[in-house]
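In full, the data:

***
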Amino acid sequence: MGRKKLVDVDELEKKIEAYFEVCDALNAPAEGKKEEKKVKKPYSLSGLLLALGLTRNEFEKLHASPRYKPLLSRTLSRIEAFTEENALAGTLSASAAVNSLKYNFGWGAKTSSEEMPHNIRIVLDEDMMRLAE
């Protein structure tokens, strides 16, 4: 069994930019037509993975590597910003955007144990102590 060939960072960046260019071209309003409100091809992690020919697991392994982390972190930030901004502008489905942001980018409500400190100490002044008795 041989080792998997390393992906060239420059080549990976070209493929990533090509993916975004396709999305942008499909989302641009046709010449002479009124600008449409809905996004035809949003930036998405799944779409990017298909364009790159990678599985999510392979992408995560690359992202964990110091060699690819800067490029892939910027790429993920670009998808995250696109999703958030277009959901706020009403050009993407809010529920789809929420699910994508939760699953792919860790957005969401914190659990109750994360919200509350573990040790809470309540100190009452003398007047409050008398009322509490």
